[in-house]
Amino acid sequence: MSLPSVGQAQMLAEQLGRMVALHAPRSVAVVGCAGGNGLDRLESPCVKRVVAVDINPHYIAACRSRYANRLPNLELVCADVESGQMQFEPVELIYAALIFEYTDTFATLAALKRNLRAGGTLVSVLQLTHSELPAITPSAYTSLMALASAFRPIVPADLCACASAAGFELAGSNPINLRSGKQFLVQTFT
User: Fold this and answer.
1) What is the rounded CA–CA span in Å between residue 171 and residue 116?
2) Domain segments of the chain: what residues?
3) Any bridge partners for residue 122, and if so which?
């Protein structure tokens, strides 16, 4: 995702930084943290606590290796975002980028709601469908193509309806267009 021809990793990190600057949360959870993409954007004086969540223990280990010394209040959680076992002290902002395309929307929203403080903010980043581009950008990393069968496009209005049913309210949305032609939508819920 960080290849210049793809540009997704950079965009996701930029959006996380933008949301932290906009909302100034004291605590942030990055759900689907992978190896820690964007966590450098949380080295902000306002952020006192960071929770990094991923289902893959290898990603959690990589995240620990890269950020344990840089983010002193880093909590690492290896858990399935759909499960009732994803539990941590609630945070003020949850960043869930490219998560809903791979999970059950209702189960994921319930888990996120449980881990978000009252009055907190949920930020989602959805990849929008494109008539001419594949969901997974072809690259030298051919193993990533296995994700194509798991990818399930989410219509933003459907996410809004599910979020509303889970007790969230849409606060804003912002489209993002990459040079590759891929399109994304950042939605903010309270």
Assistant:
1) 16
2) 8-189
3) 94, 189
